[in-house]
Amino acid sequence: MDEELLELQRQFEFAQQAKSSIRLSDRNVVELVQKLQELQIIDFDLLHTISGKEYITPEQLRLEMVAEIKKLGRVSVIDLADTIGVDLYHVEKQAQHIVSNDSSLMLINGEVISDSYWDTVAEEINERLQECSQIALAELAAQLQVGSELIVTVLEPRLGTLVKGRLEGGQLYTPAYVERVSAMVRGAARGITVPMNLSALWSSLQLLLQEMDGATGVAVEGSFFQSLFNGLVKEGEILGYLRAGVNWTPTVFATAQKESIDSFFSQNSFISYDVLHKLGIPQPIQYLQSRYPEGIPLVTIFVHPSMIEMLDGAAEDAIEGGSWIDSLSVLPASFGSQDAFKILSLCRSVQVALKSNEALILGESFVFSNGFVKDLYDRLENEMETFRLPGFSTTGLCDDLHTAKEIKVGKDSSSSLTESSETGNEGGNNKQAYEKVSKRKKGKSSGNAKSGAAEISPDNQESVPSKSRKNQRKGKDTSLLQVSDSKPGAKKELDKMKEDNLSIPSEEWLIQKIMMLVPDFEEQGIIDLELILRPLANHFRPMLLNSRKERKKVAFTENAQRMKHLLDNLQRKLDESFLNMQLFEKALDLFEDDQSTSVILHRHLLRTTATAMLDTLLLNLGYLQCRTSTTSCKMELKLKNLKIQNLFHLVLEKELLLLKVFQDLLSIKAVAVVEALEAKRVETFITALRVIAEESGLTLKKLDKKLERTLLHSYRKDLTSQVSAETDPVSLLPKVVSLLYIQVYSKALQAPGRAISVAVSRLKEKLDDSAYRILMDYHSATVTLLSLISAATDDEQDCTSDRTTSKRELLESLMPALKGLVLSTSQS
Amino acid sequence: MEGWDPNTKSTLTQIPLLSIKAGPRDGAAWTQRLKEEYKGLIAYTSMNKSNDNDWFRISAANPEGTRWTGKCWYVHNLLKYEFDLQFDIPVTYPSTAPEIELPQLDGKTHKMYRGGKICLTVHFKPLWAKNCPRFGIAHALCLGLAPWLAAEVPILVDSGMIKHKDDVATSIL
Q: Looking at the UniProt record for this protein, which Gene Ontology cellular component terms does it annotate, in alphabetical order (chain B) (predicted)?
């Protein structure tokens, strides 16, 4: 039999004899383990793997972890949990345990890292550093996936041993590199001659470095340069001083600065702060004061006392010589007016002169001796007088009345006058302010605005001196333009301002005058005449204004007297004529029964006496109105014309024109009077007249018995003399009739021609027959004469003219009889 | 290979396959075949032992290795039921599969031919034919007897046709 077969048989036998392995299910095992734990045979924590198929003791876990860490050097706890297959919680716990027991390990950001790992890393870094000469820590950190701070803490103990280099501002450098950059810094710093912001320098150096290193070069931090620079400064390799950490001023620059200032100041004995600013000294005054304690700081310039002495001399000359001086012309060109003012105030002679009122500083730089100013002022005042007077005298009354009213209105008008002298200068600047004010006042003032505006224009034309008129016009125009879009209220305000302004001489005018009077200014060749003349003018203006105000006050009092006189006159005239009228009115009572005659007589009376009286009254009232109220003076002119033309018998239109002069209330009443004049009743006229008289503050005297008698007496006397002197036969008759009425009825009758016959017939009962006949004859003769005269034509028909002359002769022959009739009775 | 449970299948695939096609009449070739049969049986047995699934003992009853006898057992309800096992290698082996006999169970179940030869599933024969000559005795046991025991013993025990030897002993007493 085959050996092999036997062998196989034996093997099979053996295989069947072998004990079969016993298998337990997982569940059985778990139960068993639990049982063991219950029985406390296993008395330690038993961990199980993530798969759940393995039990592991903590010691084993720790051992495995340590092995893993040893193997890798740096391993994440999460990775450990994965590789060992145990829950992360246990791994972390054990990792902490391990790290706390082993000082060469560290647990950072869930990673366990051993020292040996760092050593190898440091070696790698060193190798790279030696190749590249510089490495950014951030780059390393990114590469190693750790924080850069950690890198620093790890690298610092290894610097100089494992890593041969220098750590600066987040960069690692090799000593050779540091040396090179340091050389660059030294070179750059030594090359600087002016103050410079170091960061700018560093940025240029960075650019240079980048060019050298190519695109791969790591940007070098400014702080690296700075630290190198500080080192160099400390070692004295570069000279200068550092301000605020970044502003480097090289010593060579400071020296140059000092020398240039020294040389300029010693040569010119002044130096402008601008120069110092240009030289890079930020606080020139402090700098100069510390360097030249004897110097004097002005506003923009620093001067040596010798400069003051020089100016002092010049100013003293000018003051003593009764002249003036522009300190700017004496001082160097770089002096400003403020400097001039300040330096002037330091001059001893000027100080003394100012104290004793012998000098005046105007426009900051100009010194005037008192004598010069006084002289100029006197001349100016004279100048003002000469051309102001003509205009002043004609309109003086009106103008002054106006001012007077203003003064009455309130104190502010006087203050506004002085104010206006200032506001006038600025004009435009104040416009807004004025508008503001005016808007506030708008409600109140808009009512008066119109009259205010109207009132101004004549003032302008009359009171403005002819020379300055152009300027004024211009000013007015511009101001009008300014106003054009503003509210009427604003207009009022502006007008008021303007008006105030106009009443005093304008600045421009003053400047012109001064230039005329003192041609010196131009001869001196001062470039900007305004500069000196304006302050001078401003200086004079208030003075001139005061003098003018004084004069105005005087004129005002005069005017008030004149007004009073005018009123008195008016009252007297009014009384006289009114009494006369009343007298005449009495006579009308006689004819009350005769309607037609009464009408004629009424109308006659109104036409004659009443009209004349009303004319006088209205004219005078018109005058007064012009003065007192705000009405235009054009009206006044018209009134004057009316007077000149002697238009006593005003037609209605003219009167109405006149009436426009009056203010509303008065004008209504005046219209009523004029209309009453047109009516046929004297009584209505009288009542209307009384109203207007009361309104205008006049009184109407009533006729009493005593007054009537005296009046009648004088009237009679008057008539008697007239009659005796009368030569014209026609005009004799009415006078005789009037006289007869006085004698018979003791009433003054004024009768028109048409009413004469009636008047004569009334006398019939009162007179002797003879006398009456004489009267009748005369009357009929006069009527025929008049009818003949009126019928006469220019044909020179002899018959009519002959008859006229014959009638006239007849009348003339009758005249003595008639005269005798009257005169005899009067004498009896 | 359908018709068998996954355990059987995986086990079957692990039994080494045979290569020599020889029957008992083929002399030396049969010896070679027999060697392969042994190797397969050894592998199967050790596999069973390692899986704690040892369920039979057999040995060649004659030197030619054409008759095999042994025992097989099955554990049901924590009781081990053990039966005698015998079979002959047919003359046409390996084309014809051996007929496994459990003489003790003759006449106790439908799934058995006369003389105690077990009835195999319909799938057995085609599979065997397909894998001739690669299947051997180990495969026949694995594919034929093991599933039959697993299917029939619980039924026989429950129906009371067979009793555990302890019970038999007590009943005798």
A: cytoplasm
Query: What gap in Å lies between CA B154 and CA B159, rounded to an integer?
Result: 8
Of the candidates A49, A119, A33, A118, the residue with the CA atom closest to the CA atom of residue A86: A49
Are A20 and B41 an interchain contact pair (Cβ–Cβ within 8 Å)? Answer: no
CB A183 within 8 A of CB A230: no
Report the chain A residue with the minimal C-alpha distance to residue B38. A8
Q: What is the pLDDT of residues A165-218, one digit of tens each?
A: 777 767 777 778 778 878 888 888 788 777 778 788 888 877 787 777 665 555
Percent of chain B with pLDDT over 90: 40
Q: Are residues A654 and A789 in the same domain?
A: no
Residues in chain A, how many?
828
- Indicate whether A284 and A355 sit together in one domain: yes
What are the backbone angles phi and psi of residue A161, rounded to the nearest 5°? -110, -75
For residue A648, give the 3-state DSSP assignment: coil
Q: Which residues does A756 contact at the CB level (< 8 Å), separation at least 6?
A: A733, A734, A737, A779
CA–CA min distance A25, chain B (Å)? 12
Contact residues on chain A for B50, CB-CB shorter than 8 A: 20-21
Same-domain status, A276 and A228: no
**Nearest CA to CA, how far is A33 from chain B (Å)?**
22
- In a shared domain, residues A104 and A221: yes
Q: Which of A55-64, A762-771, B66-75 has the highest mean pLDDT?
A: B66-75
Q: Cβ contacts (< 8 Å) between A25 and chain B: which residues?
A: none
Say if A24 falls within a structural domain.
no
> A313, A345, A376 — which closes off a domain?
A376
Of residues A12, A20, A23, nearest to B38 (C-beta) = A12
Measured distance CA(A319)–CA(A349) in Å, rounded: 9
In terms of Cβ atoms closer than 10 Å to its own Cβ (0-12, 13-18, 19+), residue B152 is buried
**The pLDDT value given to residue A395:** 39
Query: Are A593 and A716 members of one domain?
Result: no
Task: Report CB contact under 8 Å: B48, A22.
Answer: no
Q: Note whether A672 and A607 are same-domain residues.
A: yes
User: For A424-468, how does the pLDDT look when each residue is reduced to its tens digit (9 = 90+)?
Assistant: 444 444 444 444 444 444 444 444 444 444 444 444 444 444 444
Closest residue in B to A2 (Cα–Cα) = B31
Give the Cα separation of A554 and A403 in Å (integer).
12
| pLDDT tier, B68 (very low <50, low <70, confident <90, very high otherwise) | very high
Are residues A323 and A339 both part of a single domain? yes
pTM higher than 0.80, yes or no? no
Q: What is the mean pLDDT of residues A652-658?
A: 53
**Which of A4, A13, A19 is the closest to B59 by Cβ?**
A13
The pLDDT score that the predictor gives to residue A466 is 42
Q: Each residue of A246-300: pLDDT tens digit?
A: 777 778 887 887 888 888 888 877 777 777 777 777 777 777 777 777 777 777 7
Angle between helices A305-320 and A348-355 (to 10 degrees): 40
Give B48's contacts in chain A (Cβ within 8 Å): 20
From A333, A357, A376, give the residue that closes a domain. Answer: A376
Cβ of B49 under 8 Å from any chain A Cβ? Answer: yes
Domain with A632, as residue range(s), is 557-703
Nearest residue on chain A to B57, alpha-carbon basis: A16
- Distance separating alpha carbons of residues B119 and B133, to the nearest angstrom: 22
Per-residue pLDDT band for B138 (boundaries 50, 70, 90) equals very high
Mark whether A687 and A781 lie in a shared domain: no
Query: Are B38 and A8 a contacting pair at CB < 8 A?
Result: yes
Q: 143-172 in B: which are within 8 Å (CB) of A?
A: none
Contact B34 A5 (CB under 8 A): yes
Size of interface A-B (CB pairs under 8 A): 48
Q: Which residue segments constitute the domains of chain B, with CATH numbers given?
A: 6-171 (3.10.110.10)
What is the ipTM metric for this complex? Answer: 0.82
Looking at residue A385, its pLDDT comes to: 66
CB-nearest partner of B52 from A12, A15, A21: A21
Judge whether A506 lies within some domain: no
